[in-house]
């Protein structure tokens, strides 16, 4: 692999895993929705 491909591999892995860890951290901090938006009731 060329050095540029390794750099892009590392950058993409950091973006993907960083997003996953950020999402998990957010859900652990605030797992429940405080209020749902008003909407129509299906009948």
TrEMBL record:
Keyword vocabulary terms for this entry: Membrane, Transmembrane, Transmembrane helix
Sequence intervals crossing the membrane: 6-29
Name of the protein this chain belongs to: Methionine and alanine importer, small subunit
């Amino acid at each position: 692999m060329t050095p540029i491909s390794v750099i892009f591999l590392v950058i993409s892995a950091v973006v993907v895993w960083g997003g996953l860890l950020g999402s998990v951290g957010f859900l652990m901090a605030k797992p429940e929705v405080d209020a749902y938006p008003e909407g129509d009731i299906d009948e």
